[in-house]
Design goal:
single chain, mainly alpha, globular
Length: 71
């Protein structure tokens, strides 16, 4: 399945992101969010993000640290 995400150039400019980098980050953020909601297993989250389990685990760890540091 393919999904089309329509993001205006002004949004990409505001984020200072290239389209390809934005799409990679969106896949990672989505995978992390669904994993946290227990809707995806680690393996499925890794597949959605386009990375292996070790790499997505690192992203989940980074997200958890960020949340702890906000307390």
């Amino acid at each position: 399945m393919q999904a089309i995400i329509d993001v205006s150039d002004s949004i990409l400019m505001a984020l200072n992101e290239k389209k390809d980098d934005f799409l990679v980050k969106m896949k990672i953020f989505t995978a992390v969010a669904y994993f946290k909601e227990e809707k995806l297993s680690l393996g499925k989250a890794a597949a959605l993000a386009g990375m292996n389990k070790i790499r997505i685990s690192s992203k989940l760890y980074d997200a958890a640290l960020k949340k702890v540091n906000e307390l």
